[in-house]
Amino acid sequence: MFDRLKISVLPPGRRFPAQVRFWVNDEDVVEEAVGKGGRGPYAADVFPAGRPSTLRATSEARRVELGEPECTGGCCGFMTVVVQRFGEIVQWSDWEVPWEWGPPPRPPIDHHFEAIQYDAEVARAEADRWWQVYS
């Protein structure tokens, strides 16, 4: 059984521009890994104008930033994952999760997406640029 990805862009707030959130199997990946105050990456970074999204999966492995804690990634580190396509499967693996004190948190498990669903969701999110009105 494949995992299922949903991408949404949250409206900009007082302190931050529009940010991206990722739900895998209906769970907020950022909140699960870095806590309630965590933030996703800025929409303009994930979906740059005139260029493909960093989320696009290819046969070449690429590390992608998916979030950071409330204190910022410069303080405790960023949440990142390696995105790679293996034929008709897109894999998220080799997670890096920010942490401050004590033992490091357990990173999320690897996710395996059906490439057709994954590509369609990334394309949908790339095309829905409502957030640019506020940037």
Fold and architecture overview:
- The protein is of the alpha+beta class and 135 residues long.
- The protein is 20% helix and 30% strand.
- The chain is built from 4 helices and 7 strands.
- The chain has helices at 29-34, 43-46, 73-76, 115-127; strands at residues 5-10, 19-24, 27-28, 62-67, 79-86, 89-96, 111-114.
- The strands form 2 sheets. The chain has a 4-stranded antiparallel sheet with strand order 4-5-6-7.
- The longest helix is centred in the last third of the chain and has 13 residues, at 115-127.
- It is globular and about 40 Å long.
- The relative contact order is 0.22.
- The model has no long low-confidence stretch (mean pLDDT 86).
Following the backbone from N to C, one meets helices and strands in this order, namely EEEHHEHEEEH
Largest sheet report: 4 strands, antiparallel
Q: Give the strand content.
A: 25-35%
Distance from first to last alpha carbon: 38 Å
Spans of at least 5 consecutive residues whose pLDDT stays below 50 are: none
Major beta sheet, strand line-up: 4-5-6-7
Assembly state (oligomeric): single chain
Give the total of beta strands.
7
Question: Can you give the helix content as a percent range?
Answer: 10-25%
**Helix- and strand-based class?**
alpha+beta
Mean pLDDT: 86
Q: Return Rg in Å.
A: 14 Å
